Amino acid sequence: MSHSSSRAKSRDPETQPRAVKGQNYFVYNLTNADRHTVLCVDVTNDLERRASDHLLGRGSAFEEQYNANKLVYLEAFPDPQSAIAREKQLKNWSRAKKDVLIVKKGTQVARFVRRHVFT
Question: pTM of the predicted model, to two decimals?
């Protein structure tokens, strides 16, 4: 997976996606597309497979129960320890704090998904 841009990117992890070549572990948030009432935080080393699983209804029992299959946040890491640490951090955040992060990165996440996951 590669991400190319001629523009300089901010190093602020709160505002920029970090999905670049060599970062193969991802933390992501899913919500239910119809109501946005739930947020699921998860980690994977195969984003394309997990995206396919979610679209086909093969996510976790929680994700299936609440129809959480809309990707609203994505962050990439070079190693599983970093990804798991971030997943734990986000799971401990309040819903309000997660919502702020999602709003900041929403457009960038949508662009990334269109370019890399479902093409």
Answer: 0.69
Rounded alpha-carbon distances, angstroms, from residue 44 to 20, 26, 35, 106: 15, 5, 25, 19
The answer to whether 70 and 14 are in contact (CB under 8 A) is no
CATH class of residue range 25-117: alpha beta
Interatomic CA distance for residues 27 and 100, integer angstroms: 16
Report, as an integer, the average pLDDT of 3-29.
53
Which H or E run includes 119?
none
Going from N- to C-terminal start, the domains of the chain cover 25-117
Max CA-CA distance within the chain?
A: 42
The CB-side HSE value for 98 (13 A sphere, CA atoms) comes to 25
Instruction: Return the DSSP state at 36.
Output: -
